[in-house]
Amino acid sequence: MRRFLVAATVTLLAVLQVAMAGVDRQEAIDMMKKCQKETGSPEDVEELFDSQKIPESREGKCMMACVARAKGLMRGDEIDIKTGTEFFERTYADDPEQLEKGAAIIGKCSTVDVSGMDGCDKAAAYAKCGQENGFRI
After folding, report:
1. What is the pLDDT of residues 52-77, one digit of tens each?
2. CA angle 27-28-33, nearest 5°?
3. What range does the record give for the signal peptide (predicted)?
4. Domains plus CATH for the chain?
5. pLDDT digits (tens, 9 = 90+) for 101-116
6. One-letter-per-residue 3-state SS of 65-134
7. Cα(2)–Cα(85) distance, rounded to whole angstroms?
């Protein structure tokens, strides 16, 4: 179970590291807007991205999970461990400092209890933990 939590944390932190991973701002916002339409999220996605706030509404949390699914990092309400791990390793392959920082945060966030949560709440819980430990969403 701990291995699953670590892998799940890796995946969610990776997908929510849009700004740090060098993904184009507009590309990230466009994806969030697409997911906003699918989920009915009332949040302003540009404000969320720029302010690094984690959505509080049910629909906003589901929007985050939608983005993770669109990136291939979640299937349904579950993490795609293999794809997520590969994404994380590619993202920080040339940045050992960030890779080390990520490993430390994964250790902390792997203890987040997500039992009984659906994919929307899982996405938000991991994002919150990552953010509290220095990662940008």
Report:
1. 889 999 999 999 999 888 877 677 77
2. 95
3. 1-21
4. 2-132 (1.10.238.20)
5. 766 776 777 778 889 9
6. HHHHHHCCCEECCEECHHHHHHHHHHHCCCCHHHHHHHHHHHHHHCCCCCCCCCHHHHHHHHHHHHHHCC
7. 15
